[in-house]
Amino acid sequence: xxxxxxxxxxxxxxxxxxxxxxxxxxxxxxxxxxxxxxxxxxxxxxxxxxxxxxxxxxxxxxxxxxxxxxxxxxxxxxxxxxxxxxxxxxxxxxxxxxxxxxxxxxxxxxxxxxxxxxxxxxxxxxxxxxxxxxxxxxxxxxxxxxxxxxxxxxxxxxxxxxxxxxxxxxxxxxxxxxxxxxxxxxxxxxxxxxxxxxxxxxxxxxxxxxxxxxxxxxxxxxxxxxxxxxxxx
Amino acid sequence: xxxxxxxxxxxxxxxxxxxxxxxxxxxxxxxxxxxxxxxxxxxxxxxxxxxxxxxxxxxxxxxxxxxxxxxxxxxxxxxxxxxxxxxxxxxxxxxxxxxxxxxxxxxxxxxxxxxxxxxxxxxxxxxxxxxxxxxxxxxxxxxxxxxxxxxxxxxxxxxxxxxxxxxxxxxxxxxxxxxxxxxxxxxxxxxxxxx
Lengths: 233, 195
Prior knowledge:
The complex is a heterodimer of chains A (about 230) and B (about 200). Chain A is mainly α and about 230 residues long. Helix content of chain A is about 75%, strand content about 0%. Chain B has helices spanning about 5-25, 30-50, 55-70, 80-100, 130-140, 140-150, 155-165, 170-195.
């Protein structure tokens, strides 16, 4: 052993702990895992929803660009947000808060633009008396789809070494919410702004809040584990 | 040593770290020992610069290497090893701060183990290393860290931005302000000495 090592205290105990647990590992491939998940998740959930509920009724008046094109743009942005936030799980590759704010504003702004563009092209209003029922229906599906994406992202992030889980929860929630909305807008024909913002956007924001709540729980567990492991007062 | 040969030797050192890290990920204990020999003294100084407390920094050094072991899969070859390892150390430091924030009152003890900083030209005549260390300890943490990471451990501002979770421009500004503040401190010391 080098003489320099001997000057560093407690190397022997460290060496013993590491030797007892030294297995070969593969470098973490979080982006590949996430893309792999989305490659299955998006077509499978989209096809299943299309099969069971049908494509939105106004797809002919909306046209391919407004239907598939805008969904594709929203899906790409949601996926980029998820891939981007996974950088937080790699030490030394943290994101700046300003950069995150910019990405969040871009994501929400793009969702608003897509909502307005869809309404301008095919303004379909929810029938009177059905606002709550249809609103809850869309809200529920957006939250379920978004939560699945979010949980996978948080799981990947937890496999790495994430210093700031709250940021992962916030931006991961937004990316997951946008991904879910990109799928769900293929099926929901109602583009009136009350429904779009009241059900769809609040679904996205609920996934964001869910991500934040999960991050708080994660931080709490981690701090507890740290205190129980650490010998300090 | 001339500038090109210094660059070459630091490139060779970074290449060694990469190959040892790859061997460590494959389960080679000797590679871990080599990594420890190279990185531990630097990370120890980094932790001292963060905590300003030698015993606490030594505890955190131990924890950092355990965390490096637990998280060794998060190193992605062929990226440089040092920013990753310093990132783990920073994570450990922040975790320790958060976990104990409510219980522990941080004791600030500027001490002799802070890393050496190249003395700004203006202070060369008056400032000995001891004084520069004291002056570095006085700098606010958010300025001290980019200054030391850049001028002592040679990280690029892009790497510092990734480590601290700030923009590259912000890292440059903070290091510049820290250097300026240090220079002002040395100048005032020079003036006091002359009087």
